[in-house]
Predict the 3D structure of the following.
Amino acid sequence: MNRTLVFVLVLAALAVAGFLIYKSLAPAPTTQPATSQQNNQNQAQTQNPSQTQQPTTTTPPQTNTTPSQTTQPATSNPQTTTSTPAGDSSPAVYTGKVKSPNVFVQAGIAGVNTLDPAHSYDTASSEIIMNIYDNLIAFDGPSTEKFVPMLATSVPTVENELLKLNADGTMMMTFPIRSGVKFQSGKEMTPEDVVYSFQRIMIHSHPDSPAWIFLEDLLGVEDFGDLAAKVGDDKACQMLIDSVHVDGQNVIFKFPQPSATFLSRIAHGATWGSITNKEYVIAHGGWDGKCEDWRKYYQIDKEKLPLHAAADGTGPFKLERWTPGEVTVLVKNPDYWRGAAKLDRVEFRVVPEFGTRKLMIQQGDADMIDVPRPYISQMKGLAGVRTIYDMPLIADTTAFFNYDIPTEGNPNIGTARMDGQGIPPDFFTDVDVRKAFNYSFNWKEFLDQIYLGEATQPNGPIPSSLPYVNKENPKYFFDSKQAEEHFRKAWGGKLWDLGFKFTIIYNEGNEQRKVAAEMLKENIEALNDKFHIEVRSEPSSTFLDDFRSRKVPLWISGWQSDFPDPHNFIQPYMHSQGAHAVRESLKKIGNFDNEIIAAAHETDPAKRQAIYYHLQQEAYDLAIDIFMVDLTDREWQRTWVNGWSYNPIWPGTVRYLYGVSKQDNGQIDPRILTDMPGSKTDSW
């Protein structure tokens, strides 16, 4: 049995000792005393979770147009959900009083990367943003197919004539905008704010941002700069202005061809569809809405964006402070247009160590926490804690190869040469290297013992919960003989003789990814004593920045759906401008762009399936990545959490807290169990 997996079998017996067995005895994540907790994924901060000082919530005067900005550290309490193994009985029931009934604390692994909806493209940032801002429409409860109005007063349909398919093949959507809604600074929201929000993200068009989601549908490009290169700066900007504009109290979107997914792309939870305050953004140095100088704001660094560390939304919570790597604090917006939230305060704490998170939820200092699958057994017997599990999650985990690694100032590739002390920048362009890595990963042990049977091996880049997955598509499997065979062939036989050395990186606190990385290391190093792999973790925000800068030769990450369509996985994984593919420089080994765009716009299901089947076969033949895990969701929380809801598209762990309160014998949203067959909940 692989030493990276043995420790899972003994976690429960060693929980008190705080050690894991990893073939030989190795230290587990440090368990902190009950009086301290780690609030920062970058550095430990000692603070008493049971004596959290709650700053006074202040509401800016209605004439104040400056939102709160992040300055001071704060405390926060996490929420968690756990799973109950089959056959477990007599769950412990919490009998005490609700702790801090108006304050909700989440303790998680990852911290915020940016608070600007025009740039944010990670789940930790997005779950904060979705509680500060509103969108035009929202998903109807847990459904990913039904919508309800939010800042719009109606959802466009053909029947209500707000959705029109024109004879020339174009499409138009009209959104009537709600009146009387105010931003948290007091300014009334207008249709101009809506238009500006969409136009600004398309002008920003940063490769680390989700701008492509709108550019693709509205302008037919992945990058606004590409459009400008084709038609010129002035015409490109005018096309953008024409694609979304104000008509009285309405906002109209014009599409060059029909889009079947646009409503999903803008629904609440899709934080790039958040409506921002145009006046505030411009006053603080953002794009002025004019075409003359749009290039000044094109692809600027996130730190220069007006909303990077500030916020002014129309949502139920306001930003009080963000201390990067430590905590983000939200307070209730008393003037929220749908009525004030039940909670006064929400704290999202970064707590990388599981032992600390466990103590927090055990003592009631956290309401919800992240629990990596290897630690599920340690949650057993915690009074007042419940798990919600087997919930659908449109997401997967993948190991990504980098085909063009920058060498300057990059410690991750050693000498940057094929000399046994590093790897060259194009190391992974050799298909035999990639196939050898795939044959070195043991899916059966990893899924059975780390995910406890609650995940499956993907058939390729598209999760099994989406249509057009070819369930007969070939998969790689653990085979050390085939791995050795491909390593011997790689680089004309030189690799086997010379060896290599480089670093695999994963985000700190993610034990599943740690085990995956160490499994690759162990199995590959066992083949040849000249093969050397270092495994290193980084705080989540640093990890995001590093792999986006392309300095990481192989990283383990994943993708959670932006909208429920196979295009949202094929595009980021295989399009040359896709979120992961562009950082891999995937175009070095193949160009699939035309097929991907054709599939996205194909209306014939049989033809669309044929294209997706071919792309999945290409992904296998070229071994473009190591597709590791097709996921379901499991969450852990105190039983006093009441009204918690779920949608498989929503980002993060806590997700949306508007309807959440705390009370003895709290209940989750019943639609989680009734509308999502297979979902379950248990108390331990």
The domain at 137-304 is CATH 3.90.76.10 (Dipeptide-binding Protein; domain 1). The chain has four domains: 1-30, 37-53+65-105+322-330+341-384+639-684, 137-304, 392-629. The CA atoms of residues 191 and 247 lie 8 Å apart. The radius of gyration is 25 Å.
